[in-house]
Prior knowledge:
By secondary structure, the protein is α/β, with parallel strands linked by helices. It has a single domain (2-272), classed as UDP-N-acetylmuramoyl-L-alanine:D-glutamate ligase. Helices cover 41% and strands 21% of the residues. It has a nine-stranded mixed β-sheet with strand order 3-2-1-4-5-8-9-10-11, sandwiched between helices. Strand 6 (114-115) and strand 7 (119-120) form a beta hairpin.
Amino acid sequence: MTVLSIQxxxxxxxxxxxxxxxxxxxxxxxVWPLNTVQFSSHTGKPGWRGxxxxxxxxxxxxxxxxxxxxxxxxxxxxxxxxGDAATGRAILEAVAAVKEANPDALYCCDPVMGDxxxxxxxxxxVPGFFAREACALADIVTPxxxxxxxxxxxxxxxxxxAARIAAAIHELGPKIVLITSFSHGQADGSLGFYxxxxxxxxxxxxxxxxxxxxxxxxGDLLSALFLGNFLGKGDAVDALERASxxxxxxxxxxxxxGDDNLAIIGAQAAIAEPPARFKASEPTFx
Length: 286
């Protein structure tokens, strides 16, 4: 299947499209990378340089793709970090064009906005764009816990809050809500995924790895892995189990390497053939 992946690009490291394109290709998908920026590295690195391409550039590429008649080949659109709402609207124009050419095409939106405890790291117009505009077109959303709370307007405090958060996001449009990096208060310190989809509600727990500082790009990778696996079988639970197992193996390899860039190349076998490491279950935090 063919995926149009509209994300950032870095020369060194694995974030944005550098965390999505190769993994999707290793899973057997054709990928059309449309880069929103080209930077030397992610912006957390000292001395980074580069350029943002903006909404007009995305529109020019989309116009050419439409004229080529190729959009009907596209099975999914994947998007992540956006610099501003104008860029986001250009992405939604691409989504609408793909869905017009292929009504069965999916839109997987990773609504990148920020994380706890640091809060937002996007422009002020971006959170509202995701909640009021992007979610209306999205079939799948993959927010982290902080972003899910922003989209839903509900802060997770226990009890049935996870289900309430997911239900509120469903009302915005997406049929599949996958909340990542879910800190759910488990005594063992494990990290949770919470999945709400037509088949039901599920959790999946993984041990925390002792990173001194978590590597950038893991959320981008997870979204690509989940979408790639979902396109294969159309089974959201299976996609979560396979994606989380691949991601964890990549993270283990990253920790062992001592590098702060995701070990996507070194652990690529686990992307192509995910090991059976984790199983989803009924939520104990719901």
